[in-house]
UniProtKB/TrEMBL annotation:
Lineage: Eukaryota, Viridiplantae, Streptophyta, Embryophyta, Tracheophyta
Domain of life, source organism: Eukaryota
UniProt keywords, alphabetically: Membrane, Signal, Transmembrane, Transmembrane helix
Segments passing through the bilayer: 435-454
InterPro entries linked to this entry: Stress_up-reg_Nod19
Protein name: MtN19-like protein
Leader sequence residues: 1-28
One Pfam match: SURNod19
């Protein structure tokens, strides 16, 4: 064996290392907080001027590689100097991060808008909308700066698991950024709601006539459209970026993976077994309109528009995190269990001023739910009810009522010692080449740590 040839000194320490590794996977729990990695990336540049819209899909983005556990994802729009851009200048309609698999023998595809479907396999979240609709792993809009996204220990989103990547393919990530420059806009809210009349749009991105009665939404503010700007308004063209920070840890069998589900209040529940995007009858419509209570016949609703739908949860588990997504006008959203219990209530935080992160009139954050693990369980096949409320004191076009939850299929084993300090965890993770150095030079230090750890492991095993 190669190890033996490196000398007698190495062997005992190798054995200790190997043992400790086994122990850490079966008995001990990692102190995940100790070794979170965090990296901040910039999306490709996009250029905006007053009224203009960018809705781009960037493929093969910078992202953690290998078999890792994602802990959080934060994003915001910044300029070339790294300055945060407020929503009243550049409205961040949404950003989405999705997974796909690319054939290994393909040339790199960076930022290409059109990809050949035969070379790619879409890697969606766990559901539940039709086809590729709302199948992203992460995604937020104007609320991005003040919405908590961290996943508490010992949970995380597992990515890059070699066992899940189709043979001959590699896992890649894409990001979609949809931003609208509303500097000088005739009607700022109208531009952010993508009202067709302000964009002078009558056909969608594919040249199809808009359906009758379609007043606004994503089909009217696609890439390179323009929202109406006040005559004579001058505003510089400028280069912007989505700056995103990903936190992750190396995969470890002490981590409990969570599944990502996104629910949509417009989901009709109908599915076809071909992926056809959306039609008025099928699945998630994503957007809807809110009629003004002043023009409606009944004003008895207190000017609250309540959208509600029933959804069937395909798998069971424990809810670890929940958050809703609403647009301006939103006043709260709740996901209920079949028996009426509240699974999560999420409410918008409106800005109060002018600065980035606190823009008045915009939803700058959504409250989140972090239930005590195990306290909120959903059973497979349970019918959930999603409710999304909007103020209807004025009409709203193209708004959303989404709900994002993370579900774990198990909770930590109580015999795991969560609070035991395992400081050497990071040190075990050394590459093979540096192992010899650690073993020879650091034998005393590392060895003591490992033995201490081993004893703990043995004690646990006996319990
Ligand atoms: C709106 O679009 C029509 C046809 O697409 C065009 O003739 C007209 O000039 C546009 N109006 C404005 C204000 O851009
Ligand atoms: C598709 O529809 C057919 C006929 O209704 C059904 O037999 C089949 O199981 C469906 N396939 C899937 C994947 O749902
Ligand atoms: C939505 O509005 C209805 C009617 O006012 C109310 O009963 C319900 O609690 C509201 N739900 C949320 C999530 O705000």
């Amino acid at each position: 064996m190669a190890l033996r040839s490196q000398g007698g000194l190495l062997l005992p320490s190798m054995l200790v290392l190997t043992l400790a590794f086994t122990v850490s996977c079966t008995i001990a729990s990692p102190r995940i907080g100790n070794k979170i990695k965090s990296v901040t990336f910039l999306s490709p540049e996009f250029v905006l001027e007053p009224g203009s819209v960018e809705n781009r899909f960037y493929y093969s983005i910078d992202f953690p590689r290998g078999h890792v556990a994602l802990k959080s994802f934060r994003a915001e729009v910044v300029d070339e100097a790294g300055k945060s851009i407020p929503l009243h200048e550049t409205y961040l309609h949404h950003w989405l991060v999705g997974k796909y698999y690319q054939r290994q023998d393909m040339a790199e595809n960076n930022g290409d808008q059109k990809i050949q479907p035969e070379n790619y396999i879409f890697g969606g979240n766990s559901g539940i909308c039709q086809g590729t609709t709302l199948r992203q792993y992460f995604g937020l809009g104007s609320e991005t700066r003040k919405t908590d996204t961290h996943i508490p220990d010992p949970y995380a989103i597992e990515i890059g698991n070699p066992a899940e990547i189709p043979e001959g393919y590699e896992e890649k990530w894409m990001i979609n950024v949809h931003a609208i420059d509303t500097r000088g806009a005739v009607d700022r809210l109208g531009c952010t709601e993508c009202r067709c009349e302000l964009y002078n749009v009558t056909v969608d991105e594919d040249g199809q006539t808009l359906r009758p009665g379609y007043k606004g939404g994503i089909s009217c503010c696609y890439d390179q459209t323009r929202c109406k700007v006040r005559k004579g308004y001058e505003g510089a063209r400028r280069s912007l970026y989505l700056r995103y920070t990903v936190e992750w840890i190396d995969w470890d069998c002490g981590i409990i993976p969570v599944k990502v589900f996104i629910f949509d209040v417009t989901d009709t529940g109908k599915r076809l077994n071909v992926s056809i995007g959306s039609s008025p009858e099928i699945g998630c419509q994503v957007e809807f309109d809110v009629a003004s209570c002043n023009t409606g016949s009944a004003v008895s609703d207190g000017c609250i528009d309540v959208h509600r739908t029933s959804l069937t949860m395909p798998v069971g588990g424990s809810v670890i995190y929940g958050v809703a997504h609403q647009h301006t006008g939103g006043i709260g959203s709740t996901l209920y269990g079949e028996d009426g219990r509240v699974i999560c209530n999420s409410e918008p935080i409106y800005g109060q001023g002018k600065d980035a992160g606190d823009e008045a009139g915009y939803i700058v954050g959504m409250s989140t739910c972090y239930p005590e693990p195990g306290s909120i369980q959903i059973t497979a096949g349970e019918n959930l009810v999603l409710e999304s409320n909007y103020s209807s004191t004025q009409k709203h076009i193209g708004v959303m009522g989404l709900f994002y939850i993370l579900v774990a299929d198990r909770t930590p084993n109580p015999t795991n010692f969560w609070h035991s300090p395992i400081h050497i965890h990071e040190k075990i993770r050394v590459s093979k080449s540096s192992l010899a150095v650690v073993s020879l030079l650091g034998l005393a230090v590392v060895g003591v740590g490992l033995r201490h750890r081993l004893k703990k492991g043995e004690r646990r095993r006996r319990l």
